[in-house]
What we know:
Elements: E1 4-11, H1 15-23, H2 25-32, E2 34-36, E3 45-50, E4 59-68, E5 72-77, E6 94-103, E7 106-114, H3 121-148
Antiparallel strand pairs: 1-7, 2-3, 3-4, 4-5, 5-6, 6-7
Helix pairs in contact: 1-2, 1-3, 2-3
Amino acid sequence: MSDRIEKSIEIEAPVSRVWEALTDHEKFGAWFKVRLDGPFVPGEVSTGNITYPGYEHLRWESVVTAMEPERYFAMTWHPYAIDPDRDYSAETPTLIEFTLEPTDGGTRLKVVESGFDELPPERRDEAFRMNEGGWAQQVENVKAYVESA
């Protein structure tokens, strides 16, 4: 198993529009299926509720680590933290990085989630497998959201 998930997708839209879909908390929530309590702010915790069918009972929590306008957005979180009765706070979170690059046809979005090797062994493989599939879907979601705007 790898320590990182990497996904890349071409989006037929300017970098500014893709950036807005990633960093505006309401737009992010629309394609990611989460209702966030407030805007993303570097160094602060982002909270909210998952709105994906079947997962509405779960809370969202991440920490924004970087926002370099129209280029790089990063946050940490506890991947596949689906047991509402478990405290994941002692685990080392993974790092999610969104990198934007202009292309002739619009924007290349690269998503990397790394740090799975730091997860507890009993959670590592399933968290990686679920997030591998999750990011495959989410890059398609953001593409569809941005291109339909």
